Amino acid sequence: MKKFVIVIFALLTLIEACAPSADKLTFRSDGTFRILQFTDLHLQLQHPDQIADVFDRMDSLVKWEDPDLITITGDLVYSTPADTLIRLIVGKLDSFARPWVIVYGNHDHEHGFTLAQLAQFIVQGQHTLNTLDPTGTLADFEIPIYKTPGRAGGDEERHARPDRASFYLFFLDSHAYSTYNDSFSYAWFEPEQVEWVRTTAGAHAEIPSIAFFHIPFPEYAEVTNYVGEWTEPVCCPKFNSGMFNAMKETGFIATFCGHDHDNSYAGIYDNVLLAYGRYSGSNGEYNHLPKGARLITLRSSGSLETCILDSSGAHNLVAFPE
Questions:
Q1: CA–CA distance, 189 with 273 (Å, rounded to integer)
Q2: How far apart, in Å, are the Cα atoms of 282 and each of 45, 81, 96, 183?
Q3: How far is CA 166 from CA 145, 170, 194, 309, in A?
Q4: Rounded to an integer, what distance in angstroms lies between the CA atom of residue 130 and that of residue 85?
Q5: N or C end of the chain, less CB within 10 A?
Q6: Are 36 and 66 within 8 A, CB to CB?
């Protein structure tokens, strides 16, 4: 316990000295870009052993996979005080010294702090790419990934313009709860978000995009030819606000979510890859799969490969488009 308290103090001290980073993301010289997706940490301050377990798992996976970007797709905290937990998570992410992004889940607002209050801690991270929207909470945003000039390959790749993006990443807030026809529902993407995605991605629809968010949209229940674990119902909104259609129309090839702890499949719906991450969190919430993460390897040619990572290795590799 004493050792863990010292680690907490060190991480919180690191946060105070950090300022946001705005480095441009580029593909490696081999034309790849690696993203490590953690999801559903569900950290509880009264269980420091579980926090240590989650952080050890993050340490190991980052060391093994050497990602270019790390993201956590929601449900980071599961007890009060949420600010202390968020600061611990930010400190842990900054310790990896590489860009990272957080999106909220449906539980993050439930522990004594508003999402806008928590966002103030997140955007102070040294390596975060998160920004604030006009209301003071985390903004929906896109990130371009640029080609690297001079990489091995054909003439087009060797002379690639460094200012030309060859992939876009979108990070979106899927919100928490709502009602539909007077009954409980998980929230859906707001019309303004759908229109923003349609307009923003539509400006470069010829370039592939992928998206990260917490709650799956209803199309996740319609996938076919899936690879991986599908062991609980898809817990999605009862109302379909059209986000999938907006993405389909504007060049998205894949989406990645969390939320359903016992699902970690990747499958095809209408020629788009819809994938879950792998539950990364503590034993404070239900989980029946080996804890881990998802690795997404983008290629500057416009395709991707993705697999699940856990303590026994890599599983369920999918290449898309084939």
A1: 19
A2: 11, 17, 20, 30
A3: 6, 14, 23, 26
A4: 18
A5: C
A6: no
Q: Is 90 exceeded by the pLDDT of residue 86?
A: yes
Domain ranges of the chain: 2-320
Task: Provide the residue type at 43 as one letter.
Answer: L
SS3 93: helix
- Quick one: pLDDT at residue 149? 62
Burial 96-133 (b: 16+ CB within 10 A, else e): bebbbbbbbbbbbbebebebeebbebbbbbbbbbbeee
Q: How many angstroms separate the CA atoms of 47 and 45, rounded?
A: 5
pLDDT the model gives residue 153: 45
Which H or E run contains 165? strand 165-171
| Residue 119, amino acid | A
Q: Is the pLDDT of residue 318 over 50?
A: yes
Of the options 3.60.21.10, 2.60.40.790, 3.30.360.10, 1.10.10.60, the CATH number for the domain spanning 2-320: 3.60.21.10
Do residues 120 and 89 make contact, with C-beta atoms less than 8 angstroms apart?
A: no
DSSP notation for 267-291: EEETTEEEEE----S-TTS---S--
